[in-house]
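Comment thread on ticket #2218

A.B. wrote:
> Attaching the input chain for the structure job we discussed in standup.
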Amino acid sequence: MRLRNKPLHIKEIDEFSEKRKFNIGKFIYLLFLVTVVAFIFWKWGKGFLYIKGRGQIKISRLNVQEITDIRLLKIKVKEGSKVSKGEILFTFTRYPGFTTSGKIYGGEILNRTKEYMKLKEEMRKTNYELKKKLKERNFISKEIKERVKKQEKARKLLLLRIGTADEVERISQEIKKLTHQKNLINEEIKYLQNQFQNLRQLIYSNSHKLEIHFGWKNFPDYSEIVFKGNRDFEYELTEFKNKIELEVKDKVSDFIPEQIVRNGLIQSINFIKDRNIISIVFLKNVKIRFCSSFLFPPKLIVQISEERSEKISPTRKKISCKKTYGEVFRSPFSGMVTRIYFNNYEVALKGEKIMTIFQPGEIHIKGFFEQPDLKYLKTGDNVIIEFPDSSKYEGKISRLYYASLPLPPEFQKKYEPIHRSIVADIVPLNPNLMRDKEVEKMSVTLWVKKNLFRKEK
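C.D. wrote:
> Ran it. Output below, let me know if you need it in another format.
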């Protein structure tokens, strides 16, 4: 069979492929899947790499308290006010019933000196102990009388052959013990009575001589002169250019400069004994800003500052001082008064908080972690501190506590058992960055990176 060669004709056909339609369902599914995975990683994924803890901002603070019951006279500061070291916070008195003078023991008028107050306090305690011992002696005397009656009754029963000799002997031994206790108490009462009389004589002897102590304190804007007496004294204070004179109306037995400060302001301190005048000469012209006299302890505080004005009165000027009845309490450091718990003239009992002062700049964080996370924690570990406004700062663990402690009330759930946690102190690496975060007890979140290769001890 023979095939004929014929030309081959190939026809090209343009094929246009249709575009695939956008699958919205598939896109929504993938978007949902990615969102779920991201949420799971954000919610729980961080827990595989970091330990989460809770913390509270702690700032160095002082709770102002007194060791005895006092009556507040005048509170000099307000909540939120900044105070400097040595500034007067409030005035108070430990003896609210005392006045400027009073008749005690035979009509003698005694001044309210510091030594007098100490002796008076000792005498009050001695008198209290004496009354307590007298009550104790009266109680034992009544017990002895009751035992004697029981002994007589036991002897009668013994004669009637109803009681026993052992019962009579037992009551007799009890009477002997009580009598011995009574004799010891009588000796203590005698000692306390003698001590009470001795304190009484000391109070009388400390109420006459007058000693003036001189002190000096420097503050940023002014200086303070303190004239302290061992009893009340009348005075006249005058100011003249670069000199201050204190004329004491009573006879001064001794003048004791407690502190002489060479600060370029004081030139000399002189005591003219025959005239009872204390003269302080300054190298520059000074001006009295404030003057206050205190009844107890008896002292005079004069605040002075350098006078730079050229218009200075050439004549002497008498200064009248404000009277303050009570002691003063000064701030031990510079800070801010955040809480005041009392008002003027209220009584603060021993140990009660009068006010709270915070000292900025010494910020640290107390952190609380779960007990199973102890194996991942170590002193010196870096910590990420996250604040409620989502700002983050770096810190490190400075100390781990050896005992687990309960969570603060802010973190503890109300109706659950007390939860104990591992406690750590955390300090920021750069405290200056956290100046605007100095809020006491502000809650923060703590993140500590896990070291999965750290061997357990």
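A.B. wrote:
> Thanks. Noting for the ticket: Residues 106 and 204 are 10 Å apart (CA to CA).
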